[in-house]
Amino acid sequence: MKYTSQQQFAILAVFLTAVLKFIFMDWLHWNVFYITGIVLFWLAYILYRVKSNKETLIRWGFKKEHFKQSMLYLVPLVFITGMASVLYSSMNASLSFSWYFILILLLYPLWGLIQQFMMLGIISQNLASATAGNMNRYLIIFLVSALFSMVHYPSFFLMIFTFFLEVIFATIYLKWRNLWAIGIAHGWIGTFILYYVLGRNLWAELFSIF
Q1: 101-135 pLDDT, tens per residue?
Q2: CB–CB of 42/117 below 8 Å?
């Protein structure tokens, strides 16, 4: 595989993003600083690349085309996951509601979009371009899903769940290449799973350092 300097930088940036996650979120619990910094970095990177080539946005998947087609497949997944999460919480007598849940439901899609941009817009596309499109699409889906799964260590439940979730996301992305729909679905599914299944208050975790 041969990568250009831009591709090498992007792949290295994704790798460092993953490493810093284990340091700042899992070890230091500086969630707000990590997430804010990573979002700003990748937004700056996107703006920098788009400044020299506006078509880059479309190639990555930041486009309106195929949004509806992607959402038609993702909305049922979001609904089933949400209902299953609420049912699980109810069966375990832990069902509750907080206005923080609404905030996370609104904000998480941005974080989900950045994550899927790294996994799909950068990793999957670089795998395909570096092999001149000769790499089997199923292998690309597997590699991206495995990488996304490993980032969620040490939670084995999340590692398993995110692997299969990313398989679905990557499959839809390679068919229609629309990051907006996938980012939204990622955020909503993540909100339900973390709040109702794992009992995590993401809002409190975000500002736990304070």
Answers
A1: 999 999 999 999 999 999 999 999 998 876 666 78
A2: yes
Which residues neighbour 92 within 8 Å (Cβ) at sequence distance 6 or greater?
none
Question: Do residues 186 and 116 make contact, with C-beta atoms less than 8 angstroms apart?
Answer: yes
Helices 5-20 + 31-52 axis angle, to 10: 170
199 vs 89: CA distance, rounded Å: 8
Structure tokens belonging to residue 134: 């000769």
**pLDDT of 182 higher than 90:** yes
Q: Which positions ≥6 away from 184 have C-beta within 8 Å?
A: 71, 74, 109, 112, 113
User: What pLDDT is recorded for position 52?
Assistant: 86
Q: How many CB atoms lie within 10 A of CB 157?
A: 11
Residue with tokens 């930041």, as numbered in its chain: 62
Q: Is 132 left (phi over 0), alpha (psi -120 to 50) or beta?
A: left
Residues 6+ apart with CB under 8 A from 96: 89
Phi, psi of 120, deg, nearest 5: -100, -50
| Integer Cα distance of 141 and 33 in angstroms | 31
